[in-house]
Amino acid sequence: MNIEEIKAYCLRKPKACETYPFGDWPICYKVNGRIFAQIYPDKITLKCTAFSGEAFRQAYPGAVVRGYHCPPVQQPYWNTIYLDRFPESELPMMIDHAYETVVAGFPRKVQQEIMEDRK
Q: How far apart are CA 116 and CA 45, in angstroms?
């Protein structure tokens, strides 16, 4: 996936929006005010659970690393994926996981509102 395809994929998520809180890069994708993806020219950083984050890092050593921009306490919950070293076919699944991880952190009522937007 190229950057434009990744951007379009992120924006197809219910209630997702694109923001530029830090300037031109990273391009951030949020749901209900919380970031689930950050796109850079050559990489993407995605939200994850600590368990899944470690599993992805073990499955793709060197291509998936702890969130490089995060303080150490947050690193287990973010993965940075180097796009030139990662199988393109796996990226949509990881973006889905990032989005779902963020949505799961909201109260049930908010989750229902977001899911209703899918219909």
A: 27
Which pairing describes strands 64-66 and 16-19: parallel, antiparallel, or unpaired? unpaired
- What mean pLDDT comes out for the span 5-20? 96
Mean pLDDT (whole number) for 95-110 = 95
Q: Where are the alpha helices (DSSP H) in 1-119?
A: 3-11, 50-59, 91-104, 108-116
Sign (positive or negative) of CA dihedral 12, 30, 40, 26: positive
CA distance 64 to 66: 7
What are the structural domains of the chain?
Answer: 3-114 (3.90.1150.30)
Residue 117's pLDDT band, with cuts at 50, 70 and 90, is low
Secondary structure of residue 69 in the 3-state scheme: coil
Asked whether the CA dihedral 11, 32, 76, 58 is positive or negative, the reply is negative
Please, what is the angle between helix 91-104 and helix 50-59, to 10°? 170
